[in-house]
Write a structure and sequence with these properties.
The protein contains eleven helices and 71 strands. The protein is α+β, with helices and mostly antiparallel strands. Among the domains are: about 210 residues, no CATH class; about 100 residues, Sandwich (Immunoglobulin-like); about 240 residues, Heat Shock Protein 90, CATH 3.30.565.10. The strands form 18 sheets. The chain has a five-stranded mixed beta sheet with strand order 58-64-63-60-61, with no helix packed on it. Strand 34 and strand 35 form a beta hairpin. The longest helix is centred in the C-terminal third of the chain and has 65 residues. It is elongated, with a radius of gyration of 59 Å.
Length: about 1000
């Protein structure tokens, strides 16, 4: 059995203010309870149509106990938990939620299961063994969860078994008192557990819900005792009746309802049980302070009682007929959920908009408030009067002539019906006139399409003319001011005396002092068709065809609202301003409502067939008392009361998968570069939207993506930081706050700064090692090359010695042949000295300049002896030259001196002169000039000499070439041949 628990009672109380407006506004209509009914069955995903219990958790999910499993509903799909989820018995009977929002399920086999939301699975009650010991005797009727973690179980005919959170077991049987039939045996955190005792057998225990604080308490919290003499039971002939089937419900803190054998009683404040009526009540839900919803089995359905008296008298309205209803709840948004035994799950939502039954499917083209009633036109030619609190409308006129519009003059309490011909309806204050013979009473005037009523003028416009009447009496006299005009007038507004704004098919114009004036400052968007104009404060609201709604002050102030701002359409047919200064827009796409909130910001709310309009074609609007009446292409609709904006939705991210593997939802998650395919599932729980919730999401600063899917999939994301935003839109097109999750896809290891740093270090190390190796290689190579060149130099220098020695030996041989022993001995001595100097110099790469000069002197002295003093020589050393501090290659100057002697002095008998000068030309260079005054030579002879250089000069040239390769310093030799002699300039870097 299913009762109203304290937790659900308080949950209902939280919604009383919201729900209070659910029923009261409709008390005056025949359609008192106008609910939108949604039925979920097997076809919608339920595992079974046999549903026993229902709850809503703190997150908003709906949980249903069925005989084919536990079901979780999120507004989109039903998820069924069964054997694979740990539910060993899928026949679920009762659901309860503890204070930690854990869900507990009692099954037909007497097993209790707990749902673990972290694991999304179920596990059996850890003290199930204690229950099994009694369950083989009798089944568990119900159970109760206490705030301290204990659980109480009602065993039929046995008693109440309580198991503490630590596993301690207490079995309590009812107090057996003579002639006492009903005994409360246990007070729980959520209500009362009671028993019905019998002298003829074990007691029949059942579950009792109510208020924690019990007014009538006897031993062990006894609430009521039904016995002879204590409480009068009216209507029961035999008060000693046994084996009572007992149900109990707390209606308010002082009044309870009980059901015995299907006969309902209430216990009033005087502790008198009063018989009410026969019923099969399974559950009572408190809708507001005065209204109740009952669920009844045996096809008794779901009923609504508007107050407590109607409950006692069984005066109810049927919400759902011919169903066996087991339980009902009111969710956090005020929706009613009902479980049934044979027709699945029902959801009831109070309609925002209801349709007058007799107009359903008919086109209503015009509507106008006329005193305390309404007149409306159906199917273009039938005029009706709609009277409050009456079921049927009164047909006033039905003709083949088309009725164009209705216009009421509220000052004169008369109405103008625009048709062919137009008529004036004379009326008293309280009612419209009685029409006879199918003819409309009143005064006929010329055919007109529209009528506009101002304080002192009445405009009737036709296809190409405008008729102006000073008063309605002028209609009878046909006394009018008529202007022929090529444009059709669709809207008009008073600016000042004899000054009007007119809306035409070609835009906005001005009619002032009987003349049409084209507005020079008319904005471009007001040059196309204007359907309606209304004065709004100091401004004008202008309904355009194609440019939306325009607010203009006829000066510089201009504001345009279009679909981009939230309007349903850019084609506005009519503007209606009610007593609260709210603006309503008629379009062929629905009804729009605009108003300014407390912060003076414009708010837009739209109504379409999704919100209950019979058609999106809205033709006209009128207000009567607290209701807005809407003429649509599908009937006359009523929007009752002040409709607040729907609450902003809450969206949650439910699942994140990386590369197809589920990840725990966490902000700032970091994933590898290979984990770059991200799947994000999100949901908004809004059961009113029937799974048609618009969403939009974006990643970082990318544009919003609009969708109705509940997931977003991103594949092959590049490494980087990402922020995912997702929002949902409610009934009133208001976006929710974003649900945000941030994550990072790491760079591959070879693109990280650490790798770059390490790579740089490795490259630097390898570069250094390569550089060092290369340097060592070059050093070794240079060393080898140097050694080779040194050897080559030594070899060349060694070639000098035989050449020089050969010349010297020839000279000695000549002395000996001439028997000139004295000169031979002197020559031989100088030769020996020169040979020793040459040998010493041959092992050196460089020698000092003074050594080179000493060898030159010895050599020149020898050559003077050999040539018998045919020449003289002079050696000059510049003062800036310090011979001891300067090093040059050995025997560098000697070959050129030899060349001067052999070639320059050849052919001279006497007077030859060879001059050698050592000068410093710069800090790093010295210059050696070798000059002789030998016989001048011709150009051919000089060329021949150049082609046939002496062996000494050839060897010297090779030595100098090797020297220049071997060292950075270089030796430059510049010979100069002229008629005066020969000069050789040797520039040496030092």
């Amino acid at each position: 059995m299913y009762r109203l628990t304290i937790s659900s009672f308080f949950s209902i109380i939280r919604n009383l203010l919201l729900f209070y407006g659910l029923f009261v506004p409709f008390s005056g209509f025949a359609q008192a309870l106008n609910f939108k009914q949604t039925n979920y069955t097997i076809a919608d995903g339920l595992p079974s149509n046999e549903c026993h219990d229902i709850v809503q958790d703190s997150l908003g999910y709906i949980w249903i106990a069925t005989d084919r499993g536990l079901v979780k509903f999120n507004g989109y799909e039903f998820k069924t938990y069964g054997f694979s989820d740990g539910l060993e018995d899928i026949s679920c009977l009762n659901i309860k939620i503890d204070r930690h929002q854990n869900i507990w399920i009692l099954t037909l086999s007497g097993r209790l299961f707990r749902y673990d939301k972290a694991k999304d699975s179920l596990s059996i009650y850890k003290y199930q063994d204690h229950l099994n010991k009694l369950f083989h005797l009798i089944k568990i009727h119900d159970f109760d969860l206490s705030d301290n973690g204990g659980i109480s179980f009602v065993f039929l005919g046995i008693g109440i078994l309580t198991i503490s959170v630590d596993g301690d077991v207490i079995l309590k049987r009812g107090n057996i008192i003579e002639d006492i039939e009903i005994v409360c045996t246990k007070v729980t955190d959520n209500g009362l557990l009671i028993s019905v005792n019998s002298n003829n057998g074990p007691p029949d225990y059942t579950y009792r819900n109510g208020i924690k604080k019990i007014k009538y308490v006897e031993y062990y919290a006894c609430d009521y005792q039904i016995q002879h003499g204590d409480i009068t039971i009216e209507g029961i002939r035999d008060p000693s009746i046994n084996n009572l089937n007992f149900e109990a419900f707390r209606i308010n803190p002082f009044v309870d309802l009980i059901s015995i054998y299907g006969v309902d009683y209430h216990v009033n404040e005087d502790t008198v049980i009063v018989r009410m009526h026969q019923s099969e009540i399974e559950n009572i839900t408190v809708a507001n302070d005065t209204s109740y919803i009952t669920t009844e089995v045996n096809q008794k359905g779901v009923n609504f009682y508007k107050n407590y008296d109607s409950l006692l008298e069984d005066k109810h309205s049927i919400l759902i007929p011919n169903v066996s209803a087991t339980h009902s709840i009111i969710d956090v948004d005020g929706g009613i959920w009902v479980t049934t035994l044979n027709q699945g799950l029902f959801k009831l939502d109070q309609k925002q908009i209801i349709t007058v039954d007799e107009t359903k499917g008919n086109k209503v083209t015009s509507i106008e408030r006329f005193q305390n009633n309404l007149c409306y036109v159906k199917e273009n030619n039938a005029l009706y009067k709609y009277i409050l609190n009456e079921e049927d409308s009164l047909l006033l006129y039905d003709s083949s002539n088309r009725i164009q519009s209705l216009t009421c003059d509220h000052h004169s309490k008369e109405m103008i019906v625009c048709k062919y011909p137009s008529v004036r309806l004379n009326t008293s204050y309280n009612s419209l006139p009685i029409f006879c013979h199918n003819e409309l009473g009143g005064i006929s005037v010329s055919n007109s399409n529209n009528a506009f009523v101002f304080s002192d003028k009445y405009f009737l416009s036709g296809a190409n003319y405008l008729m102006i009447y000073d008063d309605l009496d002028s209609l009878e006299k046909n006394n009018r001011f008529e202007i022929r005009f090529k444009k059709r007038i669709l809207g008009a507004a008073l600016v000042s005396d004899n000054n009007y704004l007119l809306g035409t098919e070609n835009g906005l114009i001005q009619f002032k002092d009987g003349e049409f004036i084209r507005l020079s400052n008319r904005p471009y968007i007001l040059r196309s068709r204007i359907n309606d104009i209304k004065k709004y404060g100091d401004d004008y609201l202008i309904a355009t065809q194609g440019n939306g709604l325009v607010l203009w002050d006829m000066k510089s102030k201009l504001k345009q609202l279009t679909k981009s701002n939230g309007l349903l359409s850019d084609n506005i047919d009519q503007v209606f301003i009610d007593r609260n200064e709210d603006i309503y827009l008629s379009t062929k796409s629905g009804l729009g409502k605009l108003w300014f909130d407390a912060s003076d910001s414009l708010v837009i709310r739209n109504y379409t067939t999704f919100h209950g309009l019979p058609s999106n074609e809205v033709n006209d609007i009128a207000r009567l008392e607290d209701s807005l009446y809407i003429a649509t292409g599908g009937g006359l609709a009523i929007l009752a009361g002040e409709q607040a904006l729907a609450a902003r939705q809450t969206i949650r991210i439910e699942k994140v998968e990386i590369n197809g593997r589920a990840k725990q939802i966490e902000d700032e998650g970091v994933y590898s570069h290979l984990e770059n395919s991200v799947f994000i599932e999100y949901k908004t729980l809004d059961y009113d939207m029937l799974g048609k919730i618009p969403y939009r999401y974006k990643l970082n600063d990318r544009p919003w993506t609009s969708t109705q899917s509940t997931f977003a999939n991103f594949s092959s994301l590049s490494p980087g930081q990402y922020v995912f935003n997702v929002q949902s839109k409610n009934f009133d097109d208001i976006w929710s706050e974003s649900a945000i999750i941030s994550f990072t896809i790491s760079l591959p290891w070879w693109r990280t700064w650490r790798f770059y740093g390490l790579g740089f270090c490795v490259v630097l190390l390898l570069g250094f090692m390569g550089y060092k190796r290369r340097t060592e290689y070059l050093k070794n190579r240079i060393k080898v090359e140097r050694e080779i060149r040194e050897l080559e130099r030594a070899a060349l220098q060694a070639q000098m010695n035989p050449h020089f020695i050969f010349n010297c030996l020839n000279s000695i041989q000549r002395y000996l042949m001439d028997a000139d022993k004295e000169n031979a001995m002197e020559y031989l001595a100088k030769f020996a000295t020169l040979i020793r100097q040459s040998l010493n110099a041959s092992s050196e790469n460089k020698i000092s300049l003074d050594q080179e000069i000493m060898m030159l002197q010895n050599y020149l002295d020898m050559e003077k002896l050999r040539f018998k003093d045919k020449f003289e020589y002079q050696i000059f050393i510049d003062g800036a030259v310090t011979p001891e501090e300067i090093s040059i290659p050995p025997l560098l100057v000697q070959p050129y001196v030899e060349n001067s002697i052999i070639h320059g002095m050849n052919g001279m008998d006497i007077g030859g002169l060879i001059t050698i000068r050592f000068t410093r030309v710069s800090y790093h260079q010295i210059q050696v000039k070798i000059t002789d005054n030998g016989q001048p030579v011709s150009q051919p002879s000089r060329a021949k000499d150049l082609d046939h250089k002496s062996l000494g000069m050839s060897i010297t040239s090779k030595r100098l070439a090797h020297n220049n390769k071997l060292r950075d310093d270089s030796i430059l030799i510049e010979p100069n041949y002229s008629q005066e002699g020969t000069e050789v300039v040797i520039t040496i870097s030092i």
